[in-house]
Design goal:
The structure is a single chain. By secondary structure, the protein is α+β, with helices and mostly antiparallel strands. Helices cover 41% and strands 20% of the residues. The protein is built from 18 helices and 17 strands. The strands form 4 sheets. Strands 5, 6, 7, 8, 9, 14 and 15 form a 7-stranded antiparallel sheet that branches. Strand 12 and strand 13 form a beta hairpin. It is globular and about 65 Å long. It starts with a helix and ends with a helix. This is [Pyruvate dehydrogenase [acetyl-transferring]]-phosphatase 1, mitochondrial.
């Protein structure tokens, strides 16, 4: 065969490889949706950083496709070297020393599949309480709702944690206005950038006008807080819950069009899951809405590691969530959860935005049916809204010296890694860092590809030490990416054991 013919054949194979395998993935993915995953399982064990795990039909398909994509093992080099792959993965990674209370530092990164990425994240210091908060937000149907959470939730959390006396003083000065940076300091963004975003998202003409008409926004949050029966500070769990639900109520209300559709409508029509950890002293609170996840990594006395979930995914696999919805909508048990989705459509059973599952029937019909040219949810199923809430489930944990780190991540990570695998990877990463600190570079026998724990987790979600497969995943054509991987956002918060020991 001539060189030209080989090139033509290779081009044809390259052109059709991803569509063919993508169709296969979509087909078996649909089978998985209808529950066939439970009918087939096998036991598999992977590399050093992985643990044995039971694989279902979808996972088996991924392994078969993996072999197809990778091809027969041979001397051929992957399309990207491990170093080149790392350079791509490190594009959005960040590390920040905090040294506040029990928090030593954090590392974060995100890797996009959608264009633009629908995930968002934020890390911030609450100036009035000296607590630190960390959040990851997983958008669906678009990025707009997740971005609202990134920009507005920090202030809602900060205001909800104010004491009654601080709220009273603030109310007296509401006419003068206030800015987000009066209460929140982002660990990543300088004040000028925070002010610009605050002005754009909170004081923009259209939004501020709507907030005055609908009585939404931070000013009315302060008024609502003052009406609550508490002395001193509201309990932290209640504060976080109120911040979540108040912001979601505002997003849903502000989405109602006034003459024309605007950015507020887009924020409400899209949706987002969120997990936020708030750490003050030794108290760690996790507020979870949807299927993002928080997992605590702790070292046992024998040196082994314990993975403790501090959130539970709110999907149809969570029977408590299914029962909650069935009790809230009696007589609708046959369709409130259908095909493991809310009303047969939405996978998370709690989320921000998603007004199509929250608005009353009149607004739903009058606005959404006209906007989309037909009903979003069949009227025969849309009987007793709202079907969706952003109210979080709160878990409180009292930090101990053996608690070493907290992983917060969107479901793009947890679809691939178990809690135990993720904690084991971060533990191994820390051990490797410790070895690197004890030896000069010449003494290190193996090249260290990642220097950020979040990037390390993302790499292993894409194939880990299988450099050829990681390279293939990075080069999936844009139109097929969502068949292979989701947006992934990861934040790893590291604790100061010495500080925790001093509190004993």
């Amino acid at each position: 065969m001539s060189l030209m013919n080989r090139t033509e054949v290779f081009g044809t194979l390259t052109k059709w490889k991803w569509p063919v395998v993508g169709i296969a993935a979509a087909f078996v993915g649909s089978m998985y949706t209808f529950g066939f995953n439970r009918s087939l399982s096998l036991q598999a064990s992977s590399g050093q950083d992985d643990t044995s795990n039971t694989l279902g039909l979808r996972d088996l398909l991924q392994k078969l496709i993996h072999n197809f994509v990778q091809g027969t093992k041979g001397p051929e080099k992957p399309p990207l070297s491990p170093k080149e792959a790392s350079e791509i993965l490190r594009g959005n990674e960040k590390r920040m020393d905090v040294n506040i209370g029990a928090v030593s530092y954090f590392e974060t990164n995100n890797f996009a599949s959608n264009t633009p990425c629908e995930d968002r994240g934020n890390e911030w210091l609450l100036l009035k309480t000296s607590g630190a908060a960390f959040g990851v937000f997983d958008g669906h149907g678009g990025w707009q709702c997740a971005e609202v959470l990134q920009n507005r939730l920090p202030l809602y959390v900060a205001l909800s944690l104010l004491s009654k006396s601080d709220l009273t003083i603030l109310e007296r000065n509401l006419s003068k206005g206030f800015l987000t940076e009066d209460f929140v300091s982002s660990f990543h963004r300088d004040k000028s950038e925070a002010r610009e975003k605050s002005s754009k998202n909170n004081v923009g003409y259209t939004l501020s006008q709507k907030q005055e008409v609908f009585h939404t926004g931070p000013k009315y949050l302060v008024k609502n807080l003052l009406e609550k029966p508490f002395e001193g500070r509201m309990p932290t769990g209640e504060s976080l819950s109120l911040a979540f639900t108040q912001l979601d109520d505002d997003i849903s209300t502000e989405a109602i069009p006034v003459k024309v559709l605007d950015e507020s409508f887009a924020a409400g029509a899209t949706g987002a899951c969120a997990v936020v950890s708030y750490i003050e002293g030794q108290d760690l609170f996790v507020a979870n809405t949807g299927d993002c996840r928080a997992v605590l990594g702790s070292m046992k006395a024998d040196g082994s590691w314990l993975a403790t979930p501090l959130s539970i995914d709110q999907t149809a696999q969570n029977q408590d969530e299914v029962k909650r919805l069935q009790l809230e909508h009696p007589g609708e048990e046959n369709f409130v959860i259908k095909n493991n989705r809310l009303l047969g459509q939405l996978q998370p059973l709690r989320s921000f935005g998603d007004i199509q599952y929250k608005w009353d029937k009149v607004t739903h019909s009058h606005v959404l049916t006209q906007v989309y040219g037909g009903p979003i949810v069949p009227p025969s199923m849309y009987k007793t809204p709202p079907y969706l809430t952003a109210k979080p489930v709160i878990i409180h944990h009292h930090l101990q010296p053996h608690d070493k780190f907290l992983i917060l991540a969107t479901d793009g990570l947890w679809d691939v890694l178990s809690n135990e695998q993720a904690v084991g990877l971060v533990a191994n990463f820390l051990q490797q860092q410790s070895k690197d600190n004890q030896h000069s570079q010449s003494d290190v026998t193996a090249e260290v590809l990642e220097h950020n724990a979040a990037t390390h987790l993302i790499r292993h979600a894409l194939g880990g030490n299988d450099h050829n497969f990681v390279a293939q995943m990075l080069l999936v054509p844009e139109q097929y990416r969502r068949m292979w991987r989701d947006d992934i956002t990861v934040t790893v918060v590291f604790f100061d054991s010495d500080t925790l020991l001093s509190k004993l």
